[in-house]
Amino acid sequence: MSYKNKDSCRIRTITTFLSLDKDKGSWKKELLKASQLCSDLTKEFQKSGYLVQSVRIVTNPFGEYLNTDSVESARSGLIYLSELLHSSDMPKIRLRFAIGEARTKHEIEILPELVKEFGDLCNVCVNVDLDEFGVLDNKLIQCSSEAIVKISEITPRGEGNFNFTVNFNCNPLIPYFPASYHRKELENCFVIGLETPDLLVDVLKDFNQGTGSQRHNDLFKGYYDVMSRALQYHISNINDLIGKADIDSSFTFSGFDSSAAPSKDCASMVEVYEQMGVEYFGASGTVEASSLLTKVFKSIQDVELVGFSGLMLALTEDTGLAQGTINSNFDIRSLLTYSAVCGIGLDTVPIPGDTPLHKISALMRDTGTMAYRLNKPLTVRLFPVPGLSAGDMTAFESDDLCNCAVLAVP
Question: CATH fold of 9-186, please?
Fold first, then answer.
């Protein structure tokens, strides 16, 4: 039974959420507690056959514990944090760190230099809310657009924007970066995020081999059943392991993000669509299949679902989606349309390096309007690529990113 194969269901992240304060002397203790929790859980999961790919630590808003008077003062605090995170006490697998959210114009303005220097230890987001009239906070959007452009200009190939995103209608406790953030009142906790595209492809292949010429409705019900059963099996298994593990009781388990979370090292979500009868991602039927997948991720029972728990279409983290840009199978407006029935918004989307600020802001407003109108979490993580125009190929060097064609911003 392929759906029980643990090799096809990886634990993308054990994400811990904690709060820091202005007392730098207390930081080491808090980080070590989170580190030990991650190490203990990693051992339990791997002992039971589940691969853990990364561990992550997320804090409350960085303005609550860093001195943000200037770039230099904030930099000093991050240097100390970096030293702690690189100490021999930390986990030996990949550790990523998120400094929480930027909440003011000044905090957003100092971000580009911090992202440039600290990279994967400086993941950060901005949460854009509605005002009392139900209108998006355009000042924050404008500041965020300026930060995106600045990051693209001062980091190689604009890759620094991998560590910065703008959130709309996103709650705390997202385990995936950089949309992740924490609030002090939630206290210490942790969340599990999975990587399951291989699992979904495997069970769909098995199902398709056993079916004849069935009606569309019957096929879609079958797709739903096999994918939901597979995810439920592994999430229930992992939940049982957590319940039996001897871990620090000061951290509360807050639940799972059931999203498939594709990467360049597993099957593409495009293959999932193809197994469901969609000719290619972007062809007719893509919206319907996206809606079905979203229902699958929301179907999990007997555990708390947090974060996105939906369909992730991270353009430059998915080899099939990246190839789709080269084949001109979809455009940026298509991605926004698909967000109406899924998530995550416009994620890791390369755009021309000279895209005007007002167009970047307009993309954010469109995404934010959809997020609040449909009551779903959506994000914008754009990569203006210096020197490139629509249709040009990127030349990213990050291990996390696939190369693809730059998408036009109409």
Answer: Anaerobic Ribonucleotide-triphosphate Reductase Large Chain (3.20.70)
